[in-house]
Design a protein that fits this description.
The structure holds two protein chains of two kinds. By secondary structure, chain A is an alpha/beta fold. Chain A is built from three helices and eight strands. Chain A has a domain at 46-131: Nucleotidyltransferase, domain 5 (2-Layer Sandwich). Chain B is an alpha/beta fold. The chains are: A alpha/beta, B alpha/beta. Chain A binds chain B through residues 14-22, 25, 29, 44-54, 62, 99, 102-109, 111-113, 115-116, 118-120, 122, 124-131, and chain B through 15-23, 26-27, 30, 37-48, 65, 114, 117-123, 125-127, 130, 141, 143.
Chain lengths: 136, 152
């Protein structure tokens, strides 16, 4: 008598592929957010006319508690110039943009030294602002 | 006796696709989040350099912000009048120029200072400096000088 052996298919389960992709994506999103300042609370100042700003690798934020953050990490004003210089190393004109996101009520004692530090590091200063809404 | 055999088919959505649906949803929301770019304005702040003693140097226009008031060369002006008063202050530097932007850089320099009130809010400062640049002036910051005082 001839016995037919049952063959068992050994496949990688395709059901899990989507889940793996999903977890990988979450992993990279969390990594990216480590250099992000979107979780910080601040209110931009208003001016009548604004322009669209391009991309910038360096962002300095003064939050509503008047604390200073460089790319999402809190730092002291004294360290700011050296850290910006380090990030702008080997970058030419046009690529040395430094974005300043200052809370609208931040005092001059905070934002002026920040502007001075950006200038001393050779950064091209860009203020992040909102357009004043026209009153009807 | 009529016996009908019922065939029960299991009908459920394919589980294979759920991961892909989640993936596509995340991509969609990420794209939605990243479409709003930052808006604002660029500002050229001259780099601090050691001051040279020059006798013929013209005195730059000074704007002082503090305690809710703005001073142009020591004269108080309201924020609404600031643009007109600054324009006339810059014009006196070089009457021959047809417009402020055609004047030399030295005559267009406006020194902005907050030494009278270090609590000057950023929104007032940005309003004043934006007006200076709109008029054609070149913004320069006057920062506090550091001095070492030795005591016995």
């Amino acid at each position: 008598m001839k016995c037919v052996r049952k063959t068992v298919k050994a496949d990688v389960p395709s059901v899990a592929m989507g889940d793996i992709a999903f977890l990988l994506l979450i992993f990279f999103v969390i990594l990216a957010r480590a250099e992000d300042d979107s979780h910080l609370k601040w209110q931009p100042a208003n001016i009548p006319k604004v322009e669209n700003l391009g991309n910038s690798e360096v962002s300095v934020l003064i939050n509503d508690d008047h604390k200073v953050f460089l790319n999402g990490a809190q730092i002291g004003i004294d360290q700011l110039s050296a850290l910006i210089s380090k990030r702008l190393e080997n970058k030419g004109t046009g690529a040395r943009k430094v974005r300043l996101k200052a809370h609208d009520t931040a005092p001059a004692s905070i934002f002026e030294p920040v502007i001075e530090a950006i200038s001393a590091a050779g950064g091209e200063l860009e203020h992040v602002l909102e357009e004043t809404l026209e009153q009807k | 006796m009529n016996l009908r055999r019922r065939s029960k088919l299991l009908v459920e959505p394919p589980a294979v696709a759920t991961g892909d649906i989640a993936f596509n949803l995340i991509v969609f929301f990420l794209v939605c989040v990243s479409v709003s770019p930052d808006t604002g304005r660029k500002q050229d702040i001259p780099k601090a350099e050691p001051k040279k003693e020059e006798k013929d140097q013209t005195k730059p226009t000074e704007v002082s912000i503090g305690r809710g008031a703005v001073l142009i060369n020591g004269n108080a002006v309201t924020v609404d009048d600031f643009e007109a008063k600054l324009t006339s202050a810059l014009r006196t530097k070089d009457a021959s120029a047809s417009e402020i932007r055609s004047m030399s850089d030295a005559n267009r320099i406006v020194v902005v200072s907050t030494k009278d009130d270090k609590n000057t809010p950023y929104k007032l400062w940005i309003k004043v400096t934006a007006t200076i640049e709109r008029v054609g002036g070149i913004v320069t910051l006057q920062l506090e000088e550091e001095r070492t005082v030795e005591t016995d």
